[in-house]
Amino acid sequence: MKTISLLIILVPIIAFSQNIPNFSTSFCSHKSSYNITKYTQSQIGNTYNQYYLRAIWEINPNQLYIKGNLTYYFTMTENSNSLSFDLHDTLTVDSVIFHQNSILFTHNNNVLNINLPFILNSNINDSLTIYYRGIPNKNANAFDIKKYEYNGDSIPCLWTLSEPYGAKDWFPCKQELYDKIDSCDLFFITPSKYKTAANGLLISEDTLNGKRTSHWKHKHPIATYLIGFVTSEFIESHRYIHLLNNDSIYMMEYSLINDSSAIETPYHLDRLFNLYDTLFIPYPFRDEKYGHMQWKRAGGMEHQTISSVNSFNWHDMYVIEHELAHQWFGDFITCGSWQDIWLNEGFAIFGNFISLEYLWSYYPDWYPHLIKAYHDDIISQPDGSVFVDDTTSVSRIFSGRLTYEKGGFLLRMLRWELGDTKFFNGVRAYLNNPDLQNSYARTSDLQQALEEEADTNLTEFFNDWFYGEGYPIYNIEYEQNNDYSTNILISQTSSHSSVSFYEMSVPIQFWINGVDTIVKLHNSTNNQLFTIQLNDLIDSVIFDPEYKIISENNITQNINLINNTNNIKIFPNPVKDEITISLGNLPLKIKHIYLTNIKAKQTQLQFTNSNFQKINISEFASGSYIITVETDKFNFNKKIILE
Question: Beta-carbon neighbour count of residue 100 at 10 Å?
């Protein structure tokens, strides 16, 4: 089979056992910290922009308790004498210090309202410090502890996981997705036997009077939910990721002491970084680091510059690949609403797809195994959109079937529809957009980038596959003529009423004398007839053998599909003014005639009730068009050139 692939130079392959790993997205269901069913979104408003955070936290991994003082530097966005922060009511605010004075505040309904002694004007920079303490909300599990055994001792591990709504459960913050902190200094004071891993670079680690103070500094904008840490007894590992351009990235691993072999486990991070750097853009936080901090819970979390992972075992490379992709998609550019969480998770799943495609080719069964498993899970139910219609439901936000699997497949289908060059150019344009970098994006931003690079209109595609529910159910009929020309009739229904027709390019595989050929047919209307020329008798036909699109399908052979498609004539071609359409003596009735330009703009043409039409199209600009004749039995397309 002829395929088109990108040329990627890779470092040497690492050999592993050939057992197929568990590619289940069950780890996705553990992503959310929240056990609650519904969430009431923040109402604190946006009277200020936060641009720097200096946080000092006192923690002990043996105790579910936190004490902190947080200094926020901010810029007012309007004239106001008040600021608000999200903070769960289980935590106690001792004081708020502004200009070295303690000022008034109220704390109820999970909101900390601070009353300033005077009005701050718009664009004024200032700061304040919040002192607080208490036991974080136990129902959220955003701040949690689990102990593990090592040499007969019980070792505690404390971690945070704030996505999507858990940050306020352990520190005062802006919970929602509209204001990143430009930079931060994070200090952790713990008993001296424990180490803390966190975002950014480790600036210092001092031990005094039985206490260890770890200072981490992060110079990049960061969404609130991506601030995170793990505290336990760790073994550290430091190395460099070597890139193809002779550059390198500093790598830190924090491994729990009962899993010391983890830091020595060989895996393909060098190759993975080079793949993502090549297909996307260079790693966004290369001036700091990338790392992992091991925790005692399932799955992983893409804390910026340092992902939390359960295991370093090569069978869990799927999680490590996934969380690394998030550094581009989710961290560098963050979804601007939980409705668009697929911009984070769909791209991370797509990262798994391409890593298996390009880096694990020496185990050829793994990639199709994963693709088929996800495809079959997506179509196991007839409904569901990638667009999150209920952001108060955490389980809906992190739906494995819709947000992760269907979101990843949406990108896979865009790649198939646009082709590798246009698709990856569009993704790079999205990542290189200065308005989105280190900020937030919506689905329309990605759509615009892809449209501009591919010079096409994707509105219908996103209406069908992002907002719409379900998937197409295809019926393919074919017949082969004596000269080996083959007629193919493509019909479809929808699994869900929200989409009446999915316009897609469909792949059909023909096997002839033991050799396969995949034909890409753009299915723009229902009951659409195609004629292709083959060179011998067909042995078998398979619809979409590589699961390029989400669908159910059925293929049948029909020797009476069309009596003689050669009777259908559309001429002249090229055409200057008038196009002639003749259906000969075929027993067909014309319903519509359309002219579609290269940008997918479709115009309906006027015609008479006859199988012989002459239509003036001189009003249209010169260029390539598709003329579609829709009849009562099938549709017929032909490419024409208008001079």
Answer: 6
Separation CA 502–CA 106 (nearest Å): 53
HEC string of 583-625 equals: CCCCCCCEEEEEEEECCCCEEECCCCCCCEEEEECCCCCCEEE
Q: Left if phi > 0, otherwise alpha if psi is -120 to 50, otherwise beta: which for 470? A: left
Collect all residues with Cβ–Cβ distance below 8 Å to 413 and sequence separation of at least 6. 465, 504, 548, 549, 550
Residue with tokens 């592993």: 16
pTM score > 0.70 for this model?
yes
**Which tens digit of pLDDT belongs to each residue from 154-191?**
999 999 999 999 999 999 999 999 999 999 999 999 99
The answer to whether 477 touches 488, Cβ cutoff 8 Å, is yes
337 SS3 class: coil
Q: Domain 34-242 maps to which CATH number in 2.60.120.10, 2.60.40.1730, 3.40.50.300, 3.30.1360.70?
A: 2.60.40.1730
For domain 565-642, the CATH class is mainly beta
Query: Structure tokens of 317?
Result: 């490379």
Find out whether 212 and 189 touch, Cβ atoms under 8 Å. Answer: yes
Indicate the pLDDT class of residue 561, thresholds 50, 70 and 90. Answer: low
Cα atoms in the 13 Å half-sphere on the side-chain side of 298: 10
Among 14-18, 34-38, 511-515, 574-578, which is the least confidently predicted range?
14-18
pLDDT, tens digit, for every residue of 400-428? 999 999 999 999 999 999 999 999 999 99
